[in-house]
Amino acid sequence: MAESSRRLRPEPRYGTRPTMKDVAARAGVGLKTVSRVVNGEPGVTPDTERRVQEAIEALGFRRNDSARVLRKGRTASIGLVIEDLADPFYGPLNRAVEEVARAHGALLINGSSAEDPEREQELVLALCARRVDGLIVVPAGHDHRYLEPEIKAGVATVFVDRPAGRIDADAVLSDSFGGARAGTAHLVAHGHRRVGFIGDQSVIHTAAERLRGYRAAMADAGLVIEPGWISLGTTDPDRVREAVAAMLDAPDPVTAIFAGNNRVSVTVVRVLAGRARPVALVGFDDIELADLLDPGVTVVAQDAATLGRTAAERLFQRLDGAADAPERVVLPTRLITRGSGELPPAH
Amino acid sequence: MAESSRRLRPEPRYGTRPTMKDVAARAGVGLKTVSRVVNGEPGVTPDTERRVQEAIEALGFRRNDSARVLRKGRTASIGLVIEDLADPFYGPLNRAVEEVARAHGALLINGSSAEDPEREQELVLALCARRVDGLIVVPAGHDHRYLEPEIKAGVATVFVDRPAGRIDADAVLSDSFGGARAGTAHLVAHGHRRVGFIGDQSVIHTAAERLRGYRAAMADAGLVIEPGWISLGTTDPDRVREAVAAMLDAPDPVTAIFAGNNRVSVTVVRVLAGRARPVALVGFDDIELADLLDPGVTVVAQDAATLGRTAAERLFQRLDGAADAPERVVLPTRLITRGSGELPPAH
DNA sequence: CCGTCACCTGACAACGTTGTCCAGGGCCTA
DNA sequence: TAGGCCCTGGACAACGTTGTCAGGTGACGG
């Protein structure tokens, strides 16, 4: 192996990576031949190929994909921007997107917008500068016109969990309105007339939809929502705690609560656990171990993995050339009864 | 604005992105001047800068970072390989790494190894081909010599949660041994002599360490572990269920169980909830809502966010030139008592 | 009025890869 | 044996950016 193949260049110094040129020199072949071997292209004699492989091995060569990208135009990577990588709701979504990307030979670059429109934009544009082939975005902002030049330039973009603002783009959503309506109706069906709603900031599309669903269900039942039954604007545990306390300690307290998302639900469960009088609860989003609590937490579950998978598949359809009009896919939610939502009103 | 600035090139066609050359032509300046404006370099007249900015705006130009990377050598991106993006344990770790990366102006590329050494290697090498500046890896395999050429070429690498195999590299770990020992000792201190251990595959470093901790605590107390008290090899709920059932239905059953990680704990909690006789439980890893169960689940908690932050900070120290010997950082665990671990033995 | 200097600006090469195209040689056929 | 074809291998340009360097312009001082 290490026979008398004199180097034409000095051994690359520490911190410098060997290039195809180095490999070619060492193997005594042309540059393009190395490229062919590395990419498994035909037209190389077994003997030549062996020599090249040995040189690659000896030098620890690894193709520089940056250069490759520059030449080929595609990066085989997609960007995923979500609200918070640490939120358990997004874990399965993230994973599902990754699986689809992997099946298409693409890598995943991702980041958290932290529910900050500026940070979302910064992140998205950074991904565009990296020339990701496509983007999957859980939008934090409400104006995505900044994406227009990118989309026109060919960056496939799919929004997930919430729709895009002020541009026409593919979106994959859960049926927040229908889910909240069904969840609230479930409480009403169990005899509740005084139902509270604790949601997130109503600028968030899903939060607004869920509020709308709650209102619709109450209206359907001919119930008038009193001021003080609705809390919006924050998922901060302390604030949610206060809001719940206020609803329960009012002169004429609510007998049931609809919680607008997983974070709110967890806090509400904690508050209710410390109360003597039972209060019914239905939460949006499933929670781990919800079945083991006493009572089990009844939830309107959405399928985050399907959300992610559907969005990613749509994205790759686009990348494969699908050019039909942007569409909005709405996935159904599922009511899972576990006890907390079936408690009768206590007075 | 849109005055008579004749184009020197035709408008780029759909799907093609404008380059600095296009911008330069449109603004009637040189290529390098555009580069200067884009990068905020000094030495450009306000008037020239304005013209360039207008051209950038009009064309929707965005710098191609692939080309930039090729020229500059650094990608301002780091790779993170974990076991499963969907595992709630890794969410905070992921997020912490992202925050540190963001503070250093780097993007995060990440993927799941799915506990498969081959897939880990594939992913890591793909990241190296992208020329990430650094790598943070939760290793699935036990031989990382394949990384030697990469590390020699300057890819900073930090292992997290588990150490590297067969190479000398930085690692940030939780004290699995100490935590398991303390957790088991806690059960023993509450009068248990017959304590079962349900763990993951013992080829996983943390799983082996936890088993070792359990054995050490039992030995410390002069207790002999009977065959049948230890279950290893899987976190599959059905198998764990069987294992727990076997321990509890044995002629001389265990009175307490130490669960080796969060997934196992959840399953064990489910099984115990269906049993009449109370069984004490301490689990490794904290679980959401563990405090609300009855009894609350006593756990040995590790701090995933700190794990991630520490690893990422170490990585950027390396990238900033730190060249000291690889070190192993071990973070302490914390026993959180909530009830399940303080149950007395039932006979 | 001219030299000097500071400041802008642009031409050019280089980063490492891949696509195009051509040269050379071996082999088959007429 | 000549002609032509196929197979292998290599030279060269191009991808879009940045670093280097040199040229050009205007101001200012002697």
UniProtKB/TrEMBL annotation, chains A, B:
Q: In the record, what terms sit under GO molecular function?
A: DNA binding
Q: Where is this region: Disordered?
A: 1-20
Q: Which residues cross the membrane?
A: none
PROSITE patterns xref list: HTH_LACI_1, HTH_LACI_2
Pfam families tied to this protein: LacI, Peripla_BP_3
Enumerate the spans annotated as HTH lacI-type domain: 18-72
Keywords, in A-Z order: DNA-binding, Transcription, Transcription regulation
| Protein name, entry field | LacI family DNA-binding transcriptional regulator
